[in-house]
């Protein structure tokens, strides 16, 4: 489910925002502008995901997640640029007015625009990869830590919470340990620890600090 949200939901939301806020609707119409921005959002997002996955498998936990995501985004850049160039060429032939938004190929303006676009895309990619990992415990590109193997870390992932588990969770939270350390000790995901913490009415790593309302 998290994979589906990340690889489909995120690029679709970004594309819709681009279609709404950008000038494409006035040139192409709502439907065509939506198809255009979706094609420029989804496929490059998937290409970045494929390359980042290969990088993650190659480094085998030797690099931090943000650096793995950065290398994946940069390495996928040539493929993404080639794809974007092909899409823009087809779109430019269909909607000549679109060429007014894109600087002439290989001009100084074109290189600057491409560099800025690539920079924004890399920052967005790193941000979403890290956010999904930190908030939802998503491990698509993050190898297991050296302290525990993949089998050990997720031994209890998805298992029912028992009264003993809840008692241990309360004790660990009361001791001031952060969610990441608690997840490692209890062999669960960070997202699972945070979800259970909220369900028990615990917050900010302190007992008795219940959410408002």
* End-to-end Cα distance: 29 Å
**Category from helices, strands and their pairing:** mainly alpha
Broad shape: elongated
Strand content is under 5%
SSE string, helices as H and strands as E: HHHHHHHHHH
* Approximate helicity band: 55-70%
Q: Report the count of strand segments.
A: 0
The overall pLDDT average reads: 78
Q: How does the major sheet shape up?
A: none
Tally of contiguous helical segments: 10
Radius of gyration: 22 Å
Oligomer: single chain
Give the helices and strands, then pairings.
Layout: H1 2-21, H2 24-28, H3 30-59, H4 65-75, H5 77-94, H6 108-136, H7 150-153, H8 163-174, H9 179-186, H10 190-199
Helix pairs in contact: 1-3, 3-4, 3-5, 4-6, 6-10, 9-10
Task: Report what the structure shows.
This protein is an all-alpha fold. The chain is 69% helix and 0% strand. It is built from 10 helices and no strands. The protein has helices spanning 2-21, 24-28, 30-59, 65-75, 77-94, 108-136, 150-153, 163-174, 179-186, 190-199. Helix 6 packs across helix 10 (190-199). It starts with a helix and ends in a 14-residue tail after the last helix. Mean pLDDT is 78; it is low at 147-155 and 205-213.
Keywords:
single chain; 213 residues; mainly alpha; 10 helices; disordered C terminus
């Amino acid at each position: 489910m998290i994979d589906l949200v990340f690889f489909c939901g995120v690029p679709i939301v970004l594309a819709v925002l681009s279609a709404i806020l950008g000038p494409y609707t006035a040139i192409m119409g709502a439907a065509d502008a939506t198809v255009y921005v979706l094609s420029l959002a989804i496929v490059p997002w998937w290409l970045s995901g494929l390359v980042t996955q290969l990088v993650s498998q190659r480094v085998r936990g030797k690099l931090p997640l943000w650096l793995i995501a950065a290398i994946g985004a940069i390495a996928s850049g040539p493929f993404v640029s080639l794809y974007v160039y092909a899409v823009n060429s087809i779109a430019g032939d269909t909607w000549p007015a679109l060429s007014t938004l894109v600087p002439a190929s290989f001009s100084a303006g074109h290189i600057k625009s491409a560099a800025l676009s690539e920079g924004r895309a890399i920052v967005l990619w790193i941000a979403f990869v890290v956010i999904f990992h930190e908030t939802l415990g998503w491990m698509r590109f993050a190898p297991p830590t050296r302290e525990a193997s993949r089998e050990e870390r997720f031994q209890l992932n998805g298992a029912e919470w028992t009264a003993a588990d809840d008692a241990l969770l309360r004790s660990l939270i009361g001791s001031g340990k952060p969610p990441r350390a608690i997840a490692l000790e209890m062999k669960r995901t960070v997202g699972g620890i945070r979800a259970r913490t909220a369900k028990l009415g615990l917050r900010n790593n302190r007992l008795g600090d219940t959410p408002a309302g």
